[in-house]
Amino acid sequence: MDSPPTTAAAPWAAVVAHYDVDGRVAEHLQRTVRLLQQRGATVCFVSTRLSDAAAAQLAPHAQVIRRDNVGYDFWSYKVGIDALGLPGAFDRLLLLNSSMVVTDPARLLDRHLALAPQTDVLGLTLSHEVQPHLQSFWLGFERAALHSAAFAQWWQTMQPLSDREAVIAQQELGLSAHFARAGLRLGALHRPSRADQLRAVLRAVDNGFLPFDAGSDGPVAIDPAWAERLNPTMYAWDSVFAQLGVLKLELLKRNPHRINLSALRDRLVRDPALQHLLQDAGVSTPSLLGDPPKLSLAQNLKAFDPSLHAGEVAASGLVGAEKLDG
């Protein structure tokens, strides 16, 4: 259930970057948009693929902008920032995108608003892959950052990039470095424990992502600090989920690092509401649970391999005691 409307202490804004192949807006994201508005935010929803029906649903709660699919989410952020005339009179800005499932928007937003005054730029997760950076699917800017020369320079000079690797190198990694050089304080909502770090490292050793030589005999040393080299939304997914109620769609749909998701499968078996939320977000829970998806006739025919089934025959007439009507 959404939280009741509250009055924000100061005017603030949120920009939501969205893409869905079918033009849908997942239930959890609709709830998040409504909650942002109820908490006093001026919301701009920028999509590169949005149906008319979905746009109409959002219209009472946000300014809706549909644009061409260029520049990835960073360009959607910029379009929303420009549309709202930021920084203007706003004291806070939140950027978020549709690459995650937020199971409890109120809990996540409460944590963000509680910790935001301690930093100038606040992300959901901090990754040390390549170099330390706040991951861009959830980023908050407090007044010191929002009204800084660094903020104006970053967004005013941005160009749309359509190469994913360039977006990561120049924008995903570059943003944190840019604001850190300006002397602004960066922080993250996710605070992994030593046990969380150790689990992440063991996962990376198990799937071969972290090369590890156990030697011949004697004790083996594993440093939990190695977790800083790993993507927390993948290797510490359970810690991020436990603390913030967030799961990345890339983990659920593609699982590119082959992370063992048995703990999530166990949770889904016991939690039909979570199953529904993931299915609504386009996640195939039968596949996630390990059950093979049911194939259509066309899919079965496409998968037919004559080299495996060339010796099989089917009777052209009745065999045994079959009866046909008619």
Characterize the structure shown.
- The chain is an alpha/beta fold.
- The protein has 16 helices and eleven strands.
- The chain has helices at residues 27-38, 52-58, 72-83, 105-115, 143-146, 149-156, 164-181, 194-206, 232-235, 237-244, 249-253, 262-270, 272-280, 285-288, 297-303, 306-309; strands spanning 12-18, 41-47, 63-66, 92-97, 100-102, 121-123, 126-127, 133-134, 138-142, 186-188, 246-248.
- It has a seven-stranded mixed beta sheet, with helices on both faces. A two-stranded antiparallel sheet has the order 5-11. A two-stranded antiparallel sheet has the order 7-8.
- A hairpin with a 5-residue loop joins strand 7 (126-127) and strand 8.
- The model is unreliable at 1-8, 291-295 and 299-326 (pLDDT under 50).
Task: Please write the string of helix (H) and strand (E) elements.
Answer: EHEHEHEEHEEEEHHHEHHHEHHHHHH
Q: In which order are the strands of the major sheet placed?
A: 3-2-1-4-9-6-10
Distance between the termini: 56 Å
Structural class: alpha/beta
Poorly predicted tracts of residues: 1-8, 291-295, 299-326
What share of the residues lie within helices? Answer: 40-55%
Strand tally, please?
11
Strand percent estimate? 5-15%
